[in-house]
Amino acid sequence: MNLKSFDIVIVGAGPAGGHCARILAKSGHKVLLAEQNDNFNKNDFSSAATPLETLYKFDLPESVIGSFWHKLTIQTSKVSQTWESPESMGVVLNFAKFRAFLASEVERFGGEVWLGYRYTGHSQSTGETTVEFKQLSDGKLIKVSTKVLVDATGFARAIMYEKEKDKPDFLSGTGIEYLIEVEPEIYNKHSGDLILFVGDKWMPKGYSWIFPMEPNRLKVGAARIFLEQKTLRHLSPLKKYIDLLIDEYLKSKNYKILDKHGSMLKYSRGLKDIYCKDNIIAIGDSVSTVNFLGGEGIRHGMDGAQIAGKYIQSYLEGKISDFQDYEREMHRKFDQKWNISERLAVRKYIDDVNDQLTDKMISYLKYMKTEDVMEILFHYKFEKISRGLGGYLQRKIKELINKFHL
Ligand SMILES: Cc1cc2nc3c(=O)[nH]c(=O)nc-3n(C[C@H](O)[C@H](O)[C@H](O)COP(=O)(O)OP(=O)(O)OC[C@H]3O[C@@H](n4cnc5c(N)ncnc54)[C@H](O)[C@@H]3O)c2cc1C
User: Fold this and answer.
1) Is the CB of 49 under 6 A from ligand 1?
2) Of the CATH numbers 2.30.30.20, 3.40.1190.10, 3.40.50.720, 3.50.50.60, which one belongs to the domain with range 4-62+94-167+272-343?
């Protein structure tokens, strides 16, 4: 039987897979984007806060925005600091609408989108790859053939690694989030503010957050970072810290939970993932594009997908015969900044740095300009931490950085 054939099969319709499929379909290739969930509301797991530039860089419409934010608050156990701007600094995306939009773009440019299809395996023969999917509604197995196969399955890395034991060492994170409806006065107080909690009081060995969404809706979540699953055994459930934010910080008495969701991140320490193998290439969280310090991954997954798209085109045009240059470009782009973020994340969340140091660091940062704080938190320009301050504070911050052993 003749199999349906594609130039590119992309497995996983997250931000990386959806964007890669969109670019390649737009440039006229025959693309299949396949996703195991049968609709985007089912795994609506990401808090999806992102700076404004994401909208422009990736040409995203207003319809995917949950809300804009123009304030950024960091709350430690004892200190609270807010930086503001007269202009919007970023958005919280509606993650379901955003991924549905990317998929609709793939179809608009002539590609196919299969929802409810789980990748189950592939086999190689003479330059073509046969990919097998299970249609989850009826268990039917379906095979297609492709010239290029893309692993965009996020933390699962379902294509690049057949067995769990072959995967590199991960720094992992588990996050749970509630979408809640609150009283208008509580929403009005927090709308426009991206609030991050980093103190032991709010979320030991991790961080928690309150992000604004559409009117009267807030995303309230908590994430814990760990090296091995067994270290989690004696810790309180994440739900306890979400309840703490709702009861003690928001002081909401009459909130309604509209949705509960969550997921995992698995970041390879030292970026040791497999990026490519023959005609198979991995993108997004499958190659640890998420920045592990704050768990921001949407923008970086899309950036990496755009780089991959360029090499996939060259491969299909016969200009290159493998994806080694893709791997090199990804390392050039991510290695340095991701390495510093990884070390900070390990110090803060795994080694469990003294809570008072975190309080002090944030109290010194209050003298920084909003633009500089954005540069540190979203562009990982850590050198700005001391440069933006006067002599005395510079010395104090350097002392703290030494205590962090960075
Ligand atoms: C709780 C939480 C909060 C977050 N908050 C933010 C934030 O505020 N801002 C930000 O920028 N980032 C955030 N992130 C990170 C961000 O969501 C991820 O980095 C981003 O989604 C990665 O995109 P991706 O396309 O690589 O992978 P994913 O979004 O994980 O997509 C992978 C897709 O592959 C599918 N899949 C997996 N296996 C198979 C299979 N066998 N067959 C078919 N399909 C398969 C999955 O169902 C999924 O849809 C958060 C993450 C978590 C867990």
Assistant:
1) yes
2) 3.50.50.60
